Predict the structure.
Amino acid sequence: MDILKALSEERAYSMTELQGIVSAWVLTGAFEGNGNSSVSTVDGHVDEADYTKQSVYSLLYSMFRSVGTVKSELGIPFQFEFNTWGYAWPEAWGPAPTRADEPQRFGKNAYTGLLHFDAIQKLVAERDGHVHLVEMGCGTGAGANHICTHVLPKCTYEAVDMQQAGVDTCRAQFAPRHRGRLVATRADATNLPIGDEVADIVLVNETHVTDQGEVMTEEDRKFFRSARRILKPGGFLSWGNAIPDMAWQPCFDFMESIGIEVLEVVDVTAEAVQARDEDAARIEVYIEQALDKFYGFRVPVFGTRKREEAAVAMKNLCRDPGTRLYDDMVTHADTYKVVLAQKKA
Ligand SMILES: C[S@@+](CC[C@H](N)C(=O)[O-])C[C@H]1O[C@@H](n2cnc3c(N)ncnc32)[C@H](O)[C@@H]1O
């Protein structure tokens, strides 16, 4: 069982199924031999060719739901819902919208930050808050819920992700709180079942695209074309992510070429590194509590080895200090930017 490639984005896996999947993965360790795994136990790195995002996020979102509520390093209960690195709130943006003890504050900051731009605030004020948002790559919908509750309490919001498990969480946990204002749709963002020119604002928060360096993939190009198609003329695209620094300019050039003008770019890499430093203790206790739930990891030798691999891979996904992805942000090989763009009228 290759859990990095074998799972489907069309499925949400129950805890019983996850137990079987983990046990099967542990068993593969018996045939692998030392050092043959696709996860580096040094820094958690996994080569592009050794995983699919369909499988990895399917596993993560099913796991977040099945593991349920855990305690942060400060003993505060939370369910892991924001699959977001996020960043410490930049001082230049004024008072922080989150408290220092909130377990998922960096994800909340990232979503609030997408809407901090003056041009967006002006549009929202002109409409007395009645704006329609579409998010491309919403994960569990935790950010959608945060925005509908705390940032734009009069907006309507369509949250889209390719992962059934993420969409299920949004439908079960978040959408019912908003009485029809928040809907969750499972779709590939490159082929959205959404009409033309319906969105005032399109949000993209750490969606796993545009991360291949200097080369834009066909998926990346389709992604931006989709955003342009669903945006109203004059509507805004607000996009935050940490990606290879060299990947930004080709994206900006492509956006301009299809009629999306880049208006503002804010570099929050320093604040993103700070977030990872401050979040490390929470990530550590989350991973321990989550992995404790799986019987397969209790198998002597192979179970222990696979548990270490799972822990280091999860830390790398979180850009935890000591991992390859964290180092890439420290050296600015990867930069975290928050970008405001506008579809030309
Ligand atoms: C790092 S997660 C971020 C999730 C969420 N925005 C958050 O911040 O919690 C990346 C997400 O992008 C989604 N994604 C990547 N490519 C996609 C695509 N082509 N269509 C829809 N979703 C996509 C993945 O399924 C995953 O949920």
Notes: The pocket of S-adenosylmethionine is lined by residues 53, 57, 82-84, 107, 137-139, 142-143, 161-163, 166, 188-190, 205-209 (CB under 6 Å).
